[in-house]
Amino acid sequence: MKTHFLALVTNSKNEHAYLREWLDYHRLVGVDHFFIYDQDDTAASRDLLAPYEKQGVVTRYPWTQYDGTRFDGPTRFYQCNKNHLAFAHCAANHRHEVQWLMKIDVDEFLQPLHDDADLTVWLRTLDPKRVKGCRIPRIDFGSNGHLTPPGGPVIAAFTQREAAPSNHKDLANGDCLSTNRYCFSSHWWRHRLGCQLRTLVTTGLGWRVNHYYTKSREEFFARQNVCRGRFLTEERWREVEARCNAVTDESMLRFAAQLPRA
Question: Where do the H-state alpha helices sit in the chain?
Fold first, then answer.
């Protein structure tokens, strides 16, 4: 018997301004548990997460033991860092508790694309005895012209995006997950060699990942740079701005109106 039907795992560092909205939004659309690897582990982060822990919807892990080691700071693509170690820890310790598990960042929001505002409506159409995972398209949102943080919900302030998905995130069937010890990606999972399920759903998907990639100009240049291939330069800013503000998309506003007031 699974404890959780749909769970998310994330690393949180310097995310206090956004984390409560991220949690409240995903609870609103059907996520029933969160595994949060707290890379701040401060009184502020503990206080913010405590009510969710008390309700049983968050499992928090202090995750500062790798600070100052070779796993800390910017790394190259497919090089192990403390984020990957957190995802592996979650897979190794919690895969038997969850039916569906997804790696996701605090600047990423899962959006149901059907009329029903519940992620699990589409997810329950999948047979976990046949499907080992789903490849969910991810689309980047831009600054909307904001130079500084505009205040209010992220999903209401940023409504301009790129024209088509440019990446993906994978949702895993917990029955098929390995320990992921050697999986150095924030986008996909490794599966057990003995798992006989071959289906990875890539069509007819009922979800999208909205990646609030830049937020405001100020936030873009202040962001944590965990990858050596991600350059925070004026040239990079102009390139991202041109790509990520191509289309106006207000489809998340219906959810913003339902979020609890701070």
Answer: 16-28, 43-54, 82-94, 119-123, 154-157, 217-222, 234-244, 253-256
Is residue 126 one of the residues assigned to a domain? yes
Whole-structure pTM value: 0.94
Question: 142: domain CATH number?
Answer: 3.90.550
Position with higher pLDDT, 258 vs 205: 258
- pLDDT tens string 142-171: 999 999 999 999 999 999 999 999 999 999
The Cα 60–Cα 184 span in angstroms is 21
Query: Domain range spanning residue 247?
Result: 4-256
Alpha-carbon gap, residue 170 to 9, rounded angstroms: 12
Backbone angles phi, psi at 116, to 5 degrees: -70, 130
Residue type at 117 in one-letter notation = A
**Is residue 262 situated within a structural domain?**
no
pLDDT at residue 24, rounded to an integer? 98
Q: Please, what is the angle between helix 16-28 and helix 43-54, to 10°?
A: 10
